[in-house]
Amino acid sequence: MTITNEPGAELDSRPELVSVIVDGVAVSVPAGTLVIRAAEMLGIEIPRFCDHPLLDPVAACRACLIEIEGVPKPQPACAQVVSDGMQVRTQLSSDVAREAQEGVMEFLLLNHPLDCPVCDKGGECPLQNQAMSIGRPESRFTEDKRTFDKPINVSAQVLLDRERCVSCARCTRFADQIAGDSMLELLERGAQQQVGTADDEPFDSYFSGNTIQICPVGALTSATYRFRARPFDLVSVPTSCEHCASGCSLRTDYRRSTITRRLAWDDPQVNEEWNCDKGRFAFSYMQQGRIEWPMVRENGELRIASWPEAIDVAAQGLRAAGSEAAVLVGGRSTVEDAYAYARFARVALGTDDIDFRARAHSDEERNFLAAHVAGSPMRVEYADLEAAPAVLLVAFEPEDESPIVFLRLRKASASGTRVFSLGSGGSRGLSKMNGTLIPAMPGDEASALADLPAEIREALAAPGAVIMMGERVASAPGACAAAGALAQETGAALAWVPRRAGERGALDAGALAGLLPGGRPIDDPLARQQSADAWGVDPSSLPQRGLSGDALLASLRSGARRAALVGGVEAADYPDDLIASLGGVDFVVSIENHHSAVTEIADVVLPVAVVSEKAGTFLDWEGRPRPFGQVFRDAMRDCDAAVLAMLAEQWQMSAPSSVSELRAELGRMGPWTGPRESFAPVATTHSPGTGVRLATWRQLLDLGVMQEGEPHLAATARDTVARMSGATATRYGLPTSGQVSIHGPSGAISVDLEIDDSMIDDVVWLPMNSEGSRVYRDLGVGYGDVVRVMSGGQL
Amino acid sequence: MAEMPQAVRGFGVTLTTMFKKVVTEQYPEDKQSTKPRFHGRHQLNRWADGLEKCVGCELCAWACPADAIYVEGADNTDEERFSPGERYGRVYQINYLRCIFCGLCIEACPTRALTMTNEYELADNDRADLIYEKDQLLAPLLPGMVPPPHPMVPGTSEQDYYANKVTGSSPDQGEAV
After folding, report:
1. pLDDT tier at B1 (50, 70, 90 boundaries)?
2. B57 and A230: CB-CB below 8 Å?
3. Which of A117, A228, A233 sits opposite B55 (nearest CB)?
4. What is the model's pTM?
């Protein structure tokens, strides 16, 4: 937020207050407040179904009728704005209001089935509760109730029991106003009124689960949770989402050591009351395909071993390598675990060869993160996005890569924020944000940033403007430098939005070569002293600057490193063959919760906890800590840090093993206040050649390992298509519909072509990791590389 | 009487009792029937065609003051139907080490699936055996009933069951016992 030092500025910005009397009690509220909110301030609860603080008022259900002095008929409190001196009487003091509310409740219940015992909402249902508090005890309706076939699928995940619906329009308004996926609509009229979708267009919104949560009756339920439990069975734990760097606050409900559902929790500064379907529904992975016991490789085969034996073998192998060891930490670790890896690498192994970027990466990106991001305080927050006059997205597709950022930008765009996206084509997300495309060939973002039109430069020069860079800047040579220069020139704030939940935390915890925790440069004597003090070692024993990124992987492959410690890394996330690189080292220790490709080649496998079995913290893209507690306190497995502490004992070192100790130690170190690493541009020329260039990113719902075991969720994913402009298709002699094949060095992908004229010419877009389109594996190329496109499904 | 020695008074009580009706029951040789509304072991009832009445709503478990009941609901499918309607009780357990036989569960049951029998012989020498599973609690199949899973009586709906319009099984549902 912008802080102004002008005296009185804060007072001026205060809203004008009006006085309103509710049930004889006066209250001063800002002008424009709704009567229902003013009553809430006094603790007076007016019944409501359609009213939701984050949705526009609609007065659809009429449950909140109240009496206003001087107005002849009862008025809906949820749509009535207060005026000065207004006298409101609610059901507590007015017979008119009470009778009106009772009448409405009787109407709403006429056609509502008495199936509360089998309804998922039973026990947490606003209709049940308010029927008890304001409803008449007996119905005068003796005729047959209206019935529908039930349930129907509005999407593979969301089920609709139409007879339970009270037509409050919360779901349709959410879809329309918040998500921008206007696929839900109220159909028919009168008693037949019902929520529905067009026949050929299911409600495949990334945010569809929110409608289930805000439905005030049990009309919308999820296929995953249906009949799994009743609310009173469940134990609820506040948690944070591990799926992306948006940092949603969640509520995890479990029963008998099994997670039954997750809900978006209320955090006005971050996710408001929403989350995406991935965060809501993708949690089965935690209970499937787990590594149960430590394993040790003997005669080429992994066998189950005891913990002491496995720790012993792992320590021996790592010690044999001396400081010629490398550490790979995936971007899914918590801050505490990433810190434990960073500490273990420097103190026990004596190496600085550590990298958390299990994805496409570049040296330029590393230098940028070290200079501008690591350990820095929150510079751009969600609230700043809402207030920003203009936001420029660079190689970033928020709807897929950080969905809550997308929701905020969409909200902001409705109130005047201009959204510009530097990319190779439009998208559903960009049009929902009313955004403008700034064309840039994939990989050539740097030159597009340099040639930015003057009009956009002006927009970004306005106070509060923001430049947001996605993880794909690492695949665009020079883009970090160009974005940094643009930010400097225009004064716009610069934000880096990683995709994975643990990336920002791992960066700040020092899980990147050259950076000690808090963004401390490893070459700085004071930074070394501070770290060594915190770790109880001599500064001279800390390693010198090591390798990261491609250089690190190359050194593994060439055999220059003798051991590797790999934690939470999915080999398929790397553009290059990680398994081949790890083949170059003698000894691989895998600290992992699921069987993976790394397990297959590891010499020692040490199982660890998933997020529900440990406490921890993620840093979201803002840099805001998102701590979460342990859901299952009797979990059999411990966090990565505890395993590393056991390993460290073999070096006769004590390392903190509990989350509280790790947090305390990190807290004592604090962020770095000395001179930061200065940004060193890396001179690279990007010349992929001529031809069609590939634009690609991971869609929100795809084949990600943490979405396994969720068939209903997977069925709402977007279809796998290749997108390109009509002109490009014509130039390469492709049909305007039907199958095309895209060829790279290691193979081809055959998918349906979708002509999209918002795409710039000579670019084809493919989902990176979706069904039938695994770009790294199938093509052997990445973002910005040249591919060949041919008509037909030939491979 | 007041002067009579205490010991003699005691014999007087013995003497008068000898001429009273004997209250001792010769259990277990001679079993007495309980009062008809005695709260004994629970039973999960069936509809006339053999389908289960339990819908797995867990209201019994919610009502239970002793936390003795555990229920898990599940979906009926067209291939495997245990009760009319969408939902049935997949897991149903009553822990008779905890149960206090208060009967709140049977009052809570919305489908009259759960009632109590007069059976009171609930002793065992193993704790685990006193957790009764669904197969132990289900009412026996009467002649004419078809063991679930099987479809509803053709041409009927869930509502017909609740309105007691289903009076027996149909040959289409499978072989009756």
Report:
1. low
2. yes
3. A117
4. 0.93
